[in-house]
Amino acid sequence: MRSVALPPETDALLVTRLHNIRYLTGFTGSNAMLLLLGGTRAVLYTDPRYTVQSKQQADCAIKIATGGLGKAALKDIRRRRIVKLGFEQDHLTYAQYESLKKELPLSAELVPLSGFIEKLRTVKDDAEIALIRASVDTNSKALANALKRLKPGISEADFAAEIDYQNRRLGAEAPAFDTIVAAGPRAALPHAHPGSTKIAPGMLLIDMGAFRDGYASDMTRMVHLGPATTKYKKAYKAVLEAQLAAIHAIRPGAKTSAVDKAARDVLKAHGLEKEFIHSTGHGLGLEIHEPPRIGRKDKTKLEAGMAITVEPGVYIEGWGGIRIEDTVLVTATGCEILTPTSKELREL
């Protein structure tokens, strides 16, 4: 159980987001609530399906509820005479909120909190960093294995399935998101869903990630089947320069908007700034998208221990798109690129 100092305006915090419960306790079940009492004191509520699992994974007090988790938690809240109960305003359902409001003593107050646990999660400890490294390594090996089976005529969907299979085979429990495989002009869709389109000579965008031991990795690489055109080579060079410029801007204390600007400035110099239509990156960990966001207007200051992606791209309708993405760790002196896969222009 992680030690957590409660916000000063609360006596306890009811945690309902499963990712936050896993972060605090290690419990990975699909039904849980956590009453956080400060420090390492907490009560985990789950149902009888997880009687054995909860004891194996969590080292806090555990209560197996047969009449609903909320009722069990409310009973403890009343018994402990908690006056100021914090709750996760972005994750508690309206029905749960109304039940709490109705059942709590009139003297009790519900205190809405946004992003409290998520902020703690932004800085990873050594154990988390090791798990992210393993996930990144698995993801990169999966791509190397899958590329051995890539040939013209295979569909996007079939190649995406091959990537997912290779990640599973290497120890991942699931893709971190729906694997993106986009061929030719379809690469202009940043979140293209792989379908029946046959992969033909030309550009291919591959965006893939894995969950391994609960932690995510994320990587985008381009391959070109057959000789690349001059236009492709110029655009690839521009995106790679933008990505490296953004990585160079990463250090403790740097604003995330400055990292985003570094990438955009390079693409602007190449006349491609209008083709960059999303943010430069995002945090990742127990979820594939976590704070901080690496965008134009984001003012978060980077801290050592943050794991983020750096993924500028350009997208031209009717032609295609190019994105290059690494998972990067903010260190005390700058940053470390965790993704080992080469970023050299690749022609197969």
What does this entry look like structurally?
- The chain is an alpha+beta fold.
- The chain has 2 domains: 12-121, 3-Layer(aba) Sandwich (Creatine Amidinohydrolase, Chain A, domain 1); 126-337, Creatinase/methionine aminopeptidase superfamily (Creatine Amidinohydrolase), CATH 3.90.230.10.
- The chain has helices at 18-25, 51-57, 69-79, 94-103, 116-121, 126-147, 156-169, 230-248, 256-269; strands at residues 12-15, 32-38, 41-46, 61-64, 84-88, 109-113, 174-175, 180-183, 202-208, 210-212, 215-216, 219-225, 281-283, 290-294, 307-310, 313-316, 320-323, 326-330, 335-337.
- Strands 4-3-2-1-5-6 form a 6-stranded mixed sheet, with helices on both faces.
- Helix 6 packs across helix 7 (156-169) and helix 8 (230-248) runs antiparallel to helix 9.
- The N and C termini lie far apart (49 Å).
Summarize it.
The chain has 2 domains: 12-121, 3-Layer(aba) Sandwich (Creatine Amidinohydrolase, Chain A, domain 1), CATH 3.40.350; 126-337, Creatinase/methionine aminopeptidase superfamily (Creatine Amidinohydrolase).
Main β-sheet, spatial strand arrangement:
4-3-2-1-5-6
Instruction: Summarize the biggest pleated sheet.
Output: 6 strands, mixed
The second-level CATH architecture of the largest domain is: Alpha-Beta Complex
Average pLDDT: 97
Distance between the termini: 49 Å
Structural class: alpha+beta
How many structural domains can be distinguished in the coordinates? 2
Binned, the helix content reads 25-40%
